[in-house]
Known about the structure:
By secondary structure, the chain is an alpha+beta fold.
Amino acid sequence: MSAPSRLGRYPVRRRIGSGAFATVWLAYDEQLDSPVAIKVLADNWTEDLHARQRFIEEGRFLRKVESPHVVSVYDAGELPDSRPFLVMSYADQGTLADRLEIEPLTVSQGLHVIGQVGAGLHALHQRGVLHRDVKPANVLFRTVEHNGTPQVSAMLGDLGLGKAMDMSSRLTVIGGTPSFVSPEQAQGEPIDARADQFSLAALTYLLLAGRAPYNHTSLRAAADPEPPEPLDSGLPAETEAVLLKALSKDREERYADVPAFVAALTTSLAGHADEPPTWIPIDPDLTHPAPKPGSSFASDDFADELTSLSSRRLRKAEGLSRNRLMAIGTGAVVIGLLGGYASHQVMLTDETIDNGTLTVTVPKTWAEAVDIDRWTPPGADDDYASISAGTGVGWNGNENPGQGVFLGLLPGEELPTTVPQHPECDAPRAPENNSRDGEAYVTVQFNGCRHGGITIERIIQKTTNQLLWVQVRAPDRATANVVLDSITTKGM
C-alpha cells in the first residue's frame, strides 16, 4: 500500500509497520497537536465481514479500558473504500521485540516490564476482556513524563484476537502465538484470564532466561507442552517455582489472577532486582524517521540511512540463542579458484543460510549471530527479505567490529551512484561495474578496516524494480568472493 497523504482528518507522516490484517501509520492530530498511530484494515480484507468485525471489536475492547498500560483508542473512522481505521496512542519507543533485538533487559528492567504489562492485563480482565496474544511484539513502549523526567512506559497493544470473557466461555476461535499461547487456548477450549497469565509467564521466562520457555512451531505442539528447561540464569529457585506454577498445563494449578502472579514473582526476586532510576533508556534510534517517499537510492542521505539502519538492526543481544539458526544447514568444504585470485585456493568449513528467498554460504565462524527476519529499507512502504550473519553481536558496528555479511532486497529501478561509506576504513577503491547472467551490479571495496580486513559493498539489479544490497566484512577479497559467489535468490 502506498503512503496516503491523509487518513480521515489526520495527515500521514510515514508507515510504522504492517501485518497480515492491518497497516499502522504515524499521523498527526492537528487539533490536539500530537502524533497518533492509525491502524487501517488491510485492503484484501475489506469484503471479509468477519475480519471487519474483529477489527472493529478491537477498538471497542480498547475503549472499555482506562489504563496507562493499555493502548488507548481516541477515534475511529472509515476510508472512502470502506476500510475501517482506529486512531490510537503512538508508541514512540517501539516494541519489546525491538528492544530485545538490540540487547537483553536486566532483571530489574524485565520485572518492571512484567509489572506494567500485568497491570494492563488486569485492567482488561476487570473489564471482562481477554487479550489472547501476549508476546514481545504486542508490548509497546512510549515516552511519559514522571516527576518532570521523561521515562519509558510499557503498554499492551494489538487486541486483534481479544475476546469478551462471556464470549470466550461459549465459543473460542483458536489463535495465538505458539511459543506463548496456553495449552487450553491452543486446544480451542473455553478460556479465562488464566490463559493470559500463562502467556505473561512465558514472556517473563523469556526476559529472565534470554530464551522462550517453548519453541513451538504450531498450535498443535502448544496444546501439550513439555516442562520448560531450567532457567540456568543464577536466579533464586523460588523464581523458577513461580514461573512453573504460572506455566502449569492445568489452569487450576496457576495463580488466581495476574496480580497474584506478579506479586509472587516480585517477592521471589527480592534482592535480585534493584529498581534503576530510569528503568529503561530512551532510544531515539528506534523511531528514526524514514526518508520521504521518492528518496533516491543514489543520494548520500539514503546511503547513510542504509548504514544506520543495518547497524541498528544487527546489534543483536549477547547470547543470541543457537535455536534461531534453524534455517542454517551445514555445508561441505568449499575449495575454489576465485575471480581475480586464480592462484589463491581457499578452504572453508561453511554453513548455508536460507530464508526461502535469499541463500548465502558463509564461514562457520560467521554463523554465531544470525538473523533471517525481513527488513524495511529507507523510504519503502513494505518489508523485504534479508539475512544477516556475523562473528558476533554488533559485527558490523564500530564498537566491537567483526566479520560477516548482510544482504537485503529493496526497491529500485537503477543502480546507485554511491554506496554506504565506511570511515573506519581507508578511502574506497574506484567502483567496479560488471554484469553476470544478465544482472548488472556495482562493487566498491574498502581496505584497511578496523575489523582487520576489507569491507565490500555490492548492489545488484535483480529485477526491473528490485535491487539486492550486500555488505561483506571479510579478512580478504578471496573470502569475500566465496561469500559473494554463493548468494542466490528464489522466486524473483
